[in-house]
Design goal:
By secondary structure, the protein is an alpha+beta fold. Helices cover 20% and strands 33% of the residues. The protein has one domain: Hotdog Thioesterase (Thiol Ester Dehydrase, Chain A, Roll), CATH 3.10.129. Strands 1-2-3-5-6-7-4 form a 7-stranded antiparallel beta sheet, with helices on one face. The longest helix is centred in the middle third of the chain and has 20 residues.
């Protein structure tokens, strides 16, 4: 069973580079839940190359971070702040092929959640990684942000 995750989860005005539906410069990623995995698909766009014909490695890390964040949102109903990102580029991601990303919860310990991410193109793995997040309370999130947590985000903080 597949369930699409709402791209307006954090409100129509949010401009996240990874998932903001109205960020003209962003990736505008969409996510769906498939059992205990969150899945996204992305087709690289012109101007996102590193070496000729290959998607820039830093953008692949950004995709991995965003997929991991939405894995926590989609599977646990929580938001977090990235505390570590460890990705391994197994083979170049080709510009002309769609990337399929899959994320799953690997470990949960207190306020830390670790997500496993994998990317593939045409069934061949291109990236694997682990991304750790600190899941904050509203107060902790506001301290980190230095401002009030937007209302749409509050329900995703730890109680």
């Amino acid at each position: 069973m597949t369930e699409a995750l709402d791209p307006y989860t954090f409100g129509p005005e949010q401009l996240c580079f990874g998932c903001g539906p109205h960020n003209d410069h962003g990736l505008r990623l969409h996510f769906e839940r498939q059992g205990e995995e969150i899945v996204t698909r992305y087709r690289p766009r012109p101007g996102q190359e590193g070496p000729p014909g290959f998607l820039h490695g830093g953008l692949q890390a950004t995709l991995a971070d965003e997929l991991a964040a939405w894995t926590i949102i989609g599977l646990r109903g929580r938001m977090g702040f990235t505390s570590s990102l460890d990705v391994r580029l197994l083979r170049p991601a080709r510009m002309e092929l769609e990337i399929e990303g899959r994320g799953s919860i690997l470990k949960e310990a207190g306020k830390i959640t670790v997500v496993k991410v994998q990317f593939s193109q045409e069934g061949k793995k291109t990236l694997t990684g682990r991304v750790s997040y600190m899941i904050p309370t509203v107060e902790e999130a506001e301290k980190v942000l230095g401002r009030t947590l937007p209302e749409a985000w509050r329900r995703f903080a730890m109680p």
